[in-house]
């Protein structure tokens, strides 16, 4: 086998394996500082409208003190909170 082809295959295999290794690591987002675009990008089940509601709630009530407080935001329920619990940080 040609060494050049072998190296290409080895490199491609490494890239493929590496992508699977990092696929399960969710990004985190600070719900007390993130803008709506970031919230919508990182949180599953949160689109632009709900993300804007989170920012609106935060500007009215102050910082979130618990993840469960997200349930007070219009359109955010327990299922969405549980789906994103590992992605959400408060500080």
TrEMBL record:
<dbReference type="Pfam" id="PF12836">
    <property type="entry name" value="HHH_3"/>
</dbReference>
<dbReference type="InterPro" id="IPR004509">
    <property type="entry name" value="Competence_ComEA_HhH"/>
</dbReference>
<feature type="signal peptide">
    <location>
        <begin position="1"/>
        <end position="23"/>
    </location>
</feature>
<dbReference type="GO" id="GO:0015628">
    <property type="term" value="P:protein secretion by the type II secretion system"/>
</dbReference>
<dbReference type="InterPro" id="IPR010994">
    <property type="entry name" value="RuvA_2-like"/>
</dbReference>
<dbReference type="GO" id="GO:0015627">
    <property type="term" value="C:type II protein secretion system complex"/>
</dbReference>
<dbReference type="InterPro" id="IPR051675">
    <property type="entry name" value="Endo/Exo/Phosphatase_dom_1"/>
</dbReference>
<keyword id="KW-0732">Signal</keyword>
<protein>
    <submittedName>
        <fullName>Competence protein ComEA</fullName>
    </submittedName>
</protein>
């Amino acid at each position: 086998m040609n060494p050049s082809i072998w190296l290409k295959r080895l490199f491609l295999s490494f890239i493929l394996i590496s992508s699977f290794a990092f696929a399960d690591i969710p990004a985190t987002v600070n719900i007390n500082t993130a803008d709506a675009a970031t919230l919508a990008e990182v949180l599953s089940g949160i689109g632009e409208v709900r993300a804007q509601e989170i920012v609106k709630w935060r500007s009215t009530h102050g910082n979130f003190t618990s993840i469960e407080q997200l349930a007070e935001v219009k359109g955010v329920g327990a299922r969405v909170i549980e789906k994103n619990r590992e992605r959400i940080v408060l500080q």
